[in-house]
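Dear colleague,

Thank you for sharing your sequence with our group. We've completed the structure prediction you requested, and as agreed, I am returning the results in plain text so they can be pasted directly into your records. Please verify that the sequence below matches your submission; if there's any discrepancy, let me know and we will rerun it promptly.
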Amino acid sequence: MSEATGFYAKAPRNAEVAARFVELHPPFVAAAAVAEAHRCLNCFDAPCMGACPTHIDVPRFIKKIATGNLEGSARTILEANILGASCARACPVEVLCEGACVLHREGKRPIEIGRLQRFAMDALDSMQDAGAALPFVPGEDTGRKVALVGAGPASLACAAELRRRGVRAVVFDARPLPGGLNTYGVAEYKLPLLESLREIDRLCALGVEFVLETTVDAVKLAELEREYDAVFLGVGLGAIRKLGLAAEEHESVTNALDFIAGYKSGAIATVAETVAVVGAGNTAIDAAIAAVRLGAREVTMVYRRGPEQMSAFAFEYEHARLEGVRFLWHTPAERAFELGCGLVVLAVGQGTHTEFVAPMRLEMEDGRIVVERATGRTSHAKVYAGGDCVNGGREVVDAVADGKRAGVAMAQALGVGR
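Please find the predicted structure tokens below.
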């Protein structure tokens, strides 16, 4: 069992990584944040709120920034999204809340909701560093306990809802640090590893427990089912798919998730001069930009289709182009072509990671766990699920929304909901 707090304090600091991965969206200074907050129209039926999967009351938290109530602003955010700090950095706001801003209709720049959300959460961090209390306290102990498998955003959000209702929440994960993709898989220039762990410490203070470096297989899962009142599955997706080519096992071939986790943890500090990234999704973009920032002279993204079919967001594509990444289109694996490079990074989608739940006979679809959307409940009355293992791979905020709904529903099913 990990200590109750201290992931942020204990995490390794890597000055070289920090210098190379300057944040994509710099934080607001106070005066700029207040000025931006005053631009908000405080819409009654705010489309930005509806566009957020966790339905943060955007006008309310922004108005509190405008009036100087930063603690109240952060509380408003956390009431809807306990991972509001990481979502402020990692969310594709261009296609969510900011994309829905009514100012678009007037031909004006949308409110910078993501940066304002970060401003409020950073302010809360500073208050807590100075000794301020948590915005929330755990509910009175109910004697109930839930096991959560996987320490990513879905499980974290679920655990927070359980703790606020007095349910013991124990999170199991195979890695040495919690956070899932927030810690290991989101590009450092979007969400620094340290900021993910700072958020974990807030959950630890709420009483969430972590059992790390522990693999949950079918046998362990059966044990958890017996010993706990309910189980939440937030295991994410599996490994990056392979192309089926002979050279994939070469030492100069890796996958995007291992590559991103490697440089975030400091295990990878430099790369070859020439890098090829195979794929054209948002993870592929993150890997390509990382290669540029780690010193590669030439980074090429190789995709079997054309730009109109790429799954990466348009703004991510433009960002990669500005960073110097070049693109090679219409290059399927079965067609021979030559591209000299010192490192190949595969980013062609992830497989599922649900084989270990087979003995439970959960309803499945294409390797994904089928749930009742409103509650996250599976076909097994005692088991709930959320995040990528359910939705097939969406945004951090979608996983948070899944976990939040499941946590509320689990508590109600255990007779302690509110």
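Summary note from our side: The chain has 17 helices and twelve strands.

Kind regards,
the structure core
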